[in-house]
Amino acid sequence: MIAITGASGNIGSKITADLLAQRQKVRCIARTSENLKNLSAKGAEITAISLDDTAALTKAFKGVEAVFAMIPSNYQATDFIGFQNVIGESIAEAVKASGVKYIVNLSSQGAHLPDKTGPIKGLHLQEKRLNKLKGVNILHLRPTYFMENLLETIDMIRQMNIMGSALRGDMEIPMIATRDIAGFAAERLLKKDFSGTPVKDLLGQRDLSLNEAAEIIGKKIDKPGLRYVQFSYEDTEKALVDMGFSPDVAGLFNEMSQAINEGLVNVPRTRENTTKTTFEEFAVTFSKIFFA
Ligand SMILES: NC(=O)c1ccc[n+]([C@@H]2O[C@H](COP(=O)([O-])OP(=O)(O)OC[C@H]3O[C@@H](n4cnc5c(N)ncnc54)[C@H](OP(=O)(O)O)[C@@H]3O)[C@@H](O)[C@H]2O)c1
């Protein structure tokens, strides 16, 4: 049995599907059982709990061979790093109390840095927290910017005919499809072929600029002139708060964008940290969702 947290999310759902396809037993963890129904129909066991419920989480981890651990987002949190710490401590405590020996931990590019990285700081702290556990093998996955983040611009495209964020449009950055992260994680959870506390960077198929990304997506959604626009940090913060993000989260997102814009976050690309899915393949997924 393998336990998957964030099981209805981008990565967790794909890991679960991969493992079920290989006839593995999977225990899916998230708060809303409704969102896990399709995985249950495919044979997964469902545990609807919040990750800050340490006793319930310990029970969910009991007897499993390996765990995929992630700290979800909470855009309304008034103290986002504090929220990450509560969930992170609960996960660490549940790993210790349940006796599970293999963890694949979802971290991020930039988690090698102690601060000035926005929400990534909480993942830095979680790596350090988990590394203190004795006798547990923990593989920290450090993926780059998810291609799926761009799905958040669909409303903007519909309303304003542009894509935009606080990130620079002209700078090439690595972008990864979440299916590449999930595929890698599923294989490690199954093979348990890591020991100690190694780190794995995952940078996607290639680096590309957001200007290029908008051009590729524009062609796929019948908007050939689609442009990417960089917003000021001030305008971004205001827009995020208007959308219901807490001022703390909006500020942290800007801090992360600034760190990416200044080239502080990513490590150099190598053959080992390069994955398969191209941005052009993701653009097909994007267009399906855009037209749905
Ligand atoms: N976006 C990026 O570019 C990027 C890059 C590197 C790393 N990351 C990391 O990736 C994470 C997001 O991964 P993702 O995209 O796969 O997740 P996601 O799609 O945002 O899904 C979040 C999952 O967590 C569950 N969840 C939320 N709050 C919970 C709680 N309190 N207790 C239990 N389950 C909870 C959700 O289900 P319920 O709502 O039903 O509980 C859902 O299954 C981020 O938080 C960040 O740490 C992101």
How would you portray this structure in words?
The protein contains 11 helices and 12 strands. The chain has helices at 10-21, 37-41, 54-61, 80-98, 120-131, 154-160, 178-191, 210-220, 233-242, 247-261, 279-291, and strands at residues 2-5, 26-30, 45-48, 66-69, 102-106, 137-143, 145-146, 162-165, 173-176, 199-202, 207-208, 227-230. Strands 3-2-1-4-5-6-10 form a 7-stranded parallel β-sheet, with helices on both faces. A 3-stranded mixed β-sheet has the order 7-9-11. Strand 2 (26-30), helix 2 and strand 3 (45-48) form a beta-alpha-beta unit. Helix 1 crosses helix 7 and helix 4 (80-98) runs parallel beside helix 5 (120-131). Bound molecules: NADP nicotinamide-adenine-dinucleotide phosphate. NADP nicotinamide-adenine-dinucleotide phosphate (NAP) binds at residues 6-12, 30-32, 35, 50-51, 70-73, 106, 108, 123, 143, 145-146, 149.
